[in-house]
UniProtKB/TrEMBL annotation:
<dbReference type="InterPro" id="IPR009875">
    <property type="entry name" value="PilZ_domain"/>
</dbReference>
<dbReference type="Pfam" id="PF07238">
    <property type="entry name" value="PilZ"/>
</dbReference>
<protein>
    <submittedName>
        <fullName>PilZ domain-containing protein</fullName>
    </submittedName>
</protein>
<feature type="domain" description="PilZ">
    <location>
        <begin position="6"/>
        <end position="89"/>
    </location>
</feature>
């Protein structure tokens, strides 16, 4: 999507990792995270979430991050973190989660 690339603030880190996801007043469950930036991530929840919906995403070794669903297409959703990650925290996660190159 050309418009999505134009709006992107940061380069995304493509990955495939499990994160905890929770909707308001619901229990958390594990979902796949497919990319990450300091401002948000793309996840694959097992049920549809709507744009504007408040959700919580818990990345490995971090507390839950309050987020908003920005878009949903099929079984993928982009979420924006309420507060962007500190660059050092993002770099730590990137090093930990990035796929190992052969």
């Amino acid at each position: 999507m050309a418009g999505e690339q134009e709006r992107r603030r940061d380069e995304r880190l493509s990955l495939d990792a499990d994160v905890e996801f929770r909707r308001k007043r619901e229990a958390h469950y594990t979902v796949r995270m497919q990319d990450l930036t300091p401002h948000g991530c793309k996840i694959a929840p097992p049920e549809r979430v709507d744009a504007g919906e408040m959700v919580w995403v818990q990345l490995p070794s971090l507390h839950s991050i309050v987020s908003r669903v920005k878009w949903t297409t099929g079984w993928q959703s982009g979420v924006e973190f309420e507060q962007p990650m500190h660059p050092a925290v993002f770099d730590m996660l990137a090093a930990r989660l990035a796929p190992v190159e052969a």
